[in-house]
Write a structure and sequence with these properties.
The structure holds 2 protein chains of 2 kinds. Chain A has a domain of 144 residues: P-loop containing nucleotide triphosphate hydrolases (Rossmann fold, 3-Layer(aba) Sandwich), CATH 3.40.50. Chain A is an alpha/beta fold. By secondary structure, chain B is mainly α. Chain B is built from 11 helices and no strands. In chain B, helix 2 packs across helix 11, helix 3 crosses helix 10 and helix 8 runs antiparallel to helix 11. The chains are: A alpha/beta, B mainly alpha. At the A-B interface, strand 6 of A face helix 7 and helix 8 of B.
Chain lengths: 260, 263
């Protein structure tokens, strides 16, 4: 893991603002971030802090920013197959079967090869038996698994996850967190996860990046040196959670303490 | 309860609900005649209409008129479907083509078919062509406009997925845009076929000597209100059958969609 590794993600002095009713709203200000190859980084922040915008810039979907975003030393210009993305909604195409959805991103490949890649990825997410099903026949968790399979077919170096489990119930969410961890250990893809779930961030991340709101800036980066699989109720886990909570709620809790 | 909707009694009840209103209406109509409230010259009772229907069918007149009208509608609708779908898809996919054509479409669209009849006669004479032209015109606009709308409604979220996955444009159009537009396109075809059929009478105002529209207009001049009603009801029933046919086609093509079924 040298500093020039092929899939290092470097962000330098990134600024992004939107024009809302002729007012300039600063979404991101002076973001600096370095993510090493194979690392799992979780970005947490309250809603509206620009964390999704940051992810969309990395993906190439969002343009018109200042600063530098480089992957392996190369500036990004638009989306590319070196990056995959998973959205909060599964975004499966309802009239395509599960296997057709997974094959959607596979282009310029022979039929046999394509079928093999699709099958392998459905097996990876544990849905080998659902190849012919339509999205409306799947549960929310299963749909998101298909979306994960679809995002991995081109073997991206970097996988961007935009609150991927936010719309799922608590049980399914924990299952899929374990699943994504397993996939990360198999595929060794660099992962950038955006979430508002602090536990999720600590459970998954090698680092937890805390963002502040309006304008979105990197407030603090907390490394998580806990062995995986992590125990959410262990002492160390709870300590890190406390530390992160303090970043968000410190100001709100003080006056309450005085009131007692 | 609602959980055994497939049982035989449930199906019979649903069938009865489906036809009850029509049967009651016919019953009241017939009763009013027997009570002496109706002048049979102005409004003949259902029993007279059934008799006239039977006679017109036996003589072969009615089937012949129906056949000719259906053929005209299919010709006009067929041309409208081919051109409406082709142009609609092209315009839907190209903003430039949309800017070139939008004004013309928006201005020509509201002109009622009857207003076209004089020009249709001047251009195509009083033969089949002018009637097919009128039917083509009315069917064309619902088809092209629904096709354009359907394509424009492509979910932006799928566009982003396709960009992330570097899906080629042709594949995106074939796998996402067109299937997504299919419900709107089918609505356009259904509406197009319906208005085409409804306008067959207007088209057959042009010096026709056959067709269901001609049958109605001819009977009006002879004050045969029973024949007029046979013609009207025939148009209604055939229209309903055509709609059923196209709905069935729609259900086959759009299996993935779970529609709201009422309640």
């Amino acid at each position: 893991m040298s500093a020039t590794a092929a899939s290092n993600l470097t962000i330098e002095n990134l600024n992004k603002s939107f024009n809302v009713n002729n007012d300039e709203v600063v979404a991101l200000q002076g973001i600096d971030l370095a993510i090493r190859e194979g690392e799992f980084v979780a970005i947490v922040g309250s809603s509206g802090c620009g964390k999704s915008t940051l992810l969309r810039i990395i993906s190439g979907l969002e343009n018109g920013y200042s600063g530098e975003v480089r992957i392996g030393g190369k500036r990004i210009g638009g989306p590319g197959l070196d990056r995959g993305m998973i959205f909060q909604e599964h975004r499966l195409i309802p009239w395509l079967t599960v296997e057709q959805n997974v094959a959607f991103g596979l282009n310029g490949m022979g039929n046999d090869r394509r079928d093999t890649v699709v099958r392998e990825h459905l097996e990876l997410v544990g849905l080998a038996g659902f190849a012919k099903a339509f999205p409306h026949q799947l549960s929310g968790g299963m749909s998101q698994r298909v979306a994960i399979a679809r995002s991995l077919v081109n073997n991206p170096q970097l996988l961007l996850l935009d609150e991927p489990f936010g719309a799922l119930d608590a049980m399914t969410r924990i299952q899929l967190q374990q699943e994504i961890l397993r996939i990360w250990e198999v595929e060794r893809t660099t992962m950038v996860l955006v979430t508002h779930d602090i536990d999720e961030a600590i459970f998954l991340g090698d680092q937890v990046v805390i963002m502040s709101s309006r304008p979105g800036t990197v407030k603090k980066i907390i490394p998580v040196h806990l062995p995986r699989p992590r125990d959410r109720s262990s002492y160390d886990f709870v300590q890190i959670r406390k530390e992160i909570y303090a970043e968000f709620f410190a100001e709100a809790e003080k006056p309450f303490a005085y009131a007692i | 309860m609602a959980h055994d909707t497939n049982s035989l009694t449930q199906r019979i009840i649903h069938m009865l609900q489906y036809v009850a209103l029509s049967i009651a209406f016919i019953g009241v109509w017939q009763a009013l005649f027997h009570l002496g409230f109706l002048n049979p010259v102005l409004l003949p009772p259902p029993s007279h209409i059934v008799l006239t229907f039977w006679e017109l069918s036996k003589s072969g007149d009615l089937p012949r008129h129906i056949g000719i009208s259906v053929l005209r509608v299919l010709e006009g609708f067929g041309i409208a479907a081919v051109l409406g779908l082709g142009l609609g898809i092209a315009i839907g996919l190209s903003r430039t083509l949309d800017r070139w054509t939008d004004l013309a479409i928006q201005v020509v669209k509201p002109i009622p078919p009857i207003a076209w009849i004089p020009l249709a006669i001047l251009w195509f004479g009083i033969g089949e062509q002018s009637k097919v032209y009128i039917i083509f015109l009315v069917a064309f606009f619902p088809i092209i406009i629904n096709t354009i709308d359907g394509i424009r409604q492509t979910d932006h979220k799928f566009v982003e997925v396709a960009r992330i996955l570097a899906v080629p444009r042709f594949k995106f159009v074939r796998q996402v845009v067109l299937p997504g537009a299919l419900p709107a396109i089918m609505t356009g075809l259904r509406v197009g076929l319906m208005v085409a059929w409804m306008c067959v009478v207007a088209a057959e105002l042009i010096a026709a000597s056959s067709g269901i529209g001609y049958l109605i207009m001819d009977a009006r001049q002879l004050s045969q209100s029973d024949v007029v009603l046979v013609g009207m009801i025939t148009i209604g029933v055939i229209g309903k059958l055509m709609d059923n046919l196209i709905k069935r086609l729609e259900n086959r093509l759009i299996r993935w969609k779970v529609a709201f079924a009422g309640n």
